[in-house]
Prior knowledge:
Blueprint: H1 5-70, H2 73-80, H3 89-98, E1 106-111, E2 116-119, H4 133-139, E3 144-149, E4 156-165, E5 171-179, H5 182-194, E6 198-203, E7 208-211, E8 219-220, H6 226-235, E9 244-245, H7 249-255, E10 261-268, E11 273-281, E12 287-294, H8 295-346, H9 361-417
Parallel strand pairs: 8-9
Antiparallel strand pairs: 1-2, 1-5, 3-4, 4-5, 6-7, 6-12, 10-11, 11-12
Helix pairs in contact: 1-8, 8-9
Amino acid sequence: MRNSLKSRILLTVVVIILFFGSLSAALVFVYSRNTVLDIQKQNLQNISIEQSHELEILFDSIVGLSDTLSKQKKVIDYVLDEERTLNDESILEVLNYYNVSDSFLSSYIIDYQGNTLASTDESFVGKNYFFRDYFENAIRGQESVEVALGVTSKELGYYFSSPIFDYNGNVVGVSVFKASPEIVNDPLERFAAETSSNIMLVDKFGVVVFSDSDNRLFSLLAPLDKDEMLYMDKERTYEGVDFKVLDYTEVKENLKHVRTSNLLELYDDIDQENEIISVARVGNFPFYVLLEEETDRYIGQNIRTAVIISSVVLLASIVALFLIFFILSRMLSPLKKITIATKEIKSGNYDYKLDIKTGDELEELSSSFNDMSSELKSVVASIEKEVEDRTKKLSKINKMMLGREKRIAELKKQIKNK
């Protein structure tokens, strides 16, 4: 069965709409995926920098408090006094004064050999902490922030230390504030509650000291090398902890190169998913904020966007088809009239006239058709008249021929009789 012009046009339009609609949806998906990923990466990086900056401000304020304590005349004189009394009441008053609102687990003074001279926690008095990193840094004249399990308390704590200088500028002792993990964890937990991203805080060894997932606490980003294990054993940083190892070797290797922040994309074999990880260093301190996000979550958003766009394209295609069908029906209706007129002319009705007023080529065609039918009628009439004239002429000739034949026959008869 032969397809009509209308059906062919509609089919062509459907194919074109579906092709370009699908192409548009695919292009939008790819473009939006890349755009959304870039935006989310930048957003993730900005958030990690913001969180690290907040921790930097917190650390700086506590280090500043420790530094202020170390410069108190009473503290300097106490460390220099060889006849001092351990945990002297006057020094305890100073230590308690700086423990604002009991914000710290303890504050204490250590001499040059690492012995604790005075502490708000009596269990620290007389203990030696020369092996601790925060003590070694302070003795070298550097302020320090470290995280470790307490050798005495067996509790995780953040240690903020500052060197105590004598009046000649020589280091003679160390002032230390030990803060509970909550002082760092609270702002991170508030952030974790407001976002879908996973957050971790790790130290210089890649040990997770905070995570919004409890099963990651005291995990390692990657296995420790030999030097790190020896160092941690010497420092007794996490004494007695059985570490779980995560699959973040690339992240750990990246820590040493982070100045402000870095962004990594990797596949997590444990979680079986692609991930975006932003690593931001906490100022000049040996801590790093890690924000982790699943790449598939953003791709899922893009798929939903592509589905919505495809649905809109499909709906628009259906509406367009109805409109095209209606418009084509109106535009092609003159062709139907022309077809009828052609059949009338074919049957000999040369008086049939088209009445098409479209103001376009179809109107010109109908006018030409009417002219053609008029001319055709004249031509047919002319031919018929010519045929009639010739018929009459032939009829006369036939009569003349019959008369001649009759006379010839009579002559033949007369001659024969003679």
